[in-house]
Design a protein that fits this description.
Length: about 450
């Protein structure tokens, strides 16, 4: 056998998914790239990593996080948010524009990219935010290296980004080239139903106020505009079986994202148990809609999983419902929760990889991500599929200090995370230094 030499890192005896079957392989890494997959037992390398008994997966690409920097660093920042990401097996993320200032100009976008380059543990890209006043600069904004696209809130949520007029939504689609991502709740209906929120309301009001029709009206509108203009759209955090049914007819135009929260938590139980900690937009719904999301995964309508990591402080969440903000952390728990669903037989390992990595890389055109293959970036996560454990506060790295999944018993654990060939998490602990780089797009 020819002796391989010159690797920076060799991962030994990892279990890898190969055409729907599992094979034990060694992986050679050089200059941040995967350069060999096979038997490297005689290889020379700067470092070796024993992965015996562990499965190796492409690093998770979390396509929806709110890391709150700049402006709200008391909730989260790019360092703590990305640390939570890699501890959970996330090697790349798309960060949302509703910070302070919002990411609505080239200057603000470049500021975020500069901050992340200095402190992010994971690879990064940022959404530009659409407003009623910046539509004319969106074509230039979306072309900034490190921008993953434009995000549009057509219903109000956290922050002040809102574009609800039909003619303006259409104009955004007309002027942009990349796939536009939408928070789909109908603003007029939200305002009409806000009378339901009183000073005595509790969190159980949330899915009543922001009801199913609020979501389906907005999604249907976006899809009609996409069809009219022949433009591609991405619907974030879909929550209803009704939307899944509609989206199934628009596979040529629309891609679909769901969250682990909506696949795991169920109303009204979550509101009774967690109160405001279960509050997010769009809301957690009942079991019928959760089953609809799982059916959407089975039918291939759902394309990807995004955490919608949206931390708020404990103090904020403890306020009365009418004053408490929507959102919950989730970047660190995305993969563990989905591994648990895998172990419960709700999806295959192949489907899990598609939903958490390869589909996102393909749909958004992320260069050299989403696959374990020669020439691809060495963004990898080693998982122990058999490990049983409980999420506890000590494991959580988010600055907000809480999780709706705290105390949950799981099977499946992210043991080691590698970003660009650098081991940043080993045995569930942060090691080394931040190694994230801006994502590049085809």
């Amino acid at each position: 056998m020819t002796i391989k030499s010159g690797y920076d890192l060799v991962i030994r005896q990892a279990k890898m998914l190969v055409v729907a079957s599992i094979a034990e392989v060694d992986i050679g890494i050089k200059d941040g790239k995967i350069v060999e997959i096979g038997d490297l037992s005689s290889a020379k390398s700067f470092a070796f990593l024993n992965a015996k008994g562990l499965h190796i997966l492409p690093g998770v690409i979390d396509t929806q996080v709110h890391f709150r920097e700049p402006g709200y660093e008391y909730k989260e920042d790019l360092s703590t948010g990305s640390a939570a990401a890699v501890l959970g097996g996330v090697t790349s993320y798309f960060e949302m524009p509703n910070t302070n200032p919002s990411t609505v100009s080239i200057t603000n976008l470049q500021d975020k990219l500069s901050r992340a380059a200095k402190k992010s543990w994971a690879n990064f890209a940022f959404y530009g935010g659409a407003t009623v006043d910046n539509i004319h600069i969106l074509p230039e904004l979306e072309q900034v290296p490190g921008c993953c696209g434009i995000k549009v809130f057509i219903g109000s949520s956290t922050g002040n980004l809102l574009v609800s007029e039909d003619k303006l939504i259409k104009e955004i689609l007309r002027v942009t080239k990349k796939r536009v991502a939408f928070h789909a709740e109908d603003e007029a209906r939200l305002q009409e139903r806000k009378y339901l929120v009183t000073k005595d309301s509790t969190a159980i009001t949330h899915p009543i106020w922001r009801d199913v029709l609020t979501a389906t009206m907005a999604t249907s509108k976006i899809l009609s505009f996409a069809k009219e203009l022949n433009k591609s759209v991405h619907i974030l955090h879909v929550t209803t079986k009704d939307e899944i049914a509609i989206l199934g007819n628009y596979r040529n135009l629309a891609t679909v994202e769901v969250t682990p929260q909506h696949l795991t938590l169920v109303a009204p139980d979550c509101y009774e148990q967690l109160g405001n900690y279960a509050r997010m937009n769009p809301p957690i719904r009942d079991e019928i809609h959760q089953q609809g999301l799982w059916q959407g995964i089975k039918d291939g309508i759902v394309d990807m999983i995004g955490s919608d990591h949206a931390p708020h402080s404990l103090e904020e969440k403890k306020r009365p419902y009418a004053e408490s903000p929507s959102g919950m952390p989730g970047v660190q728990t995305l993969l563990p929760v989905m591994l648990n669903h895998y172990n419960l037989g709700r999806l295959s390992l192949e489907k899990l990889v598609q939903l958490t990595s390869s589909n996102s890389a393909r749909i958004f055109g992320i260069r050299n991500k989403g696959l374990i293959a020669k020439g691809y970036d060495a963004d990898l996560v080693l998982v122990d599929l058999k490990k049983k454990w409980k999420i506890d506060k000590k494991w959580l790295a988010s600055k907000c200090g809480w999780s709706p999944f705290e105390g949950m018993n799981l099977k499946g654990y992210p043991d080691t995370t590698i970003v660009g060939g650098n081991i940043v998490v080993q045995n569930g602990e942060l090691v080394g230094n931040p190694a994230g780089k801006a994502l590049t797009f085809l």
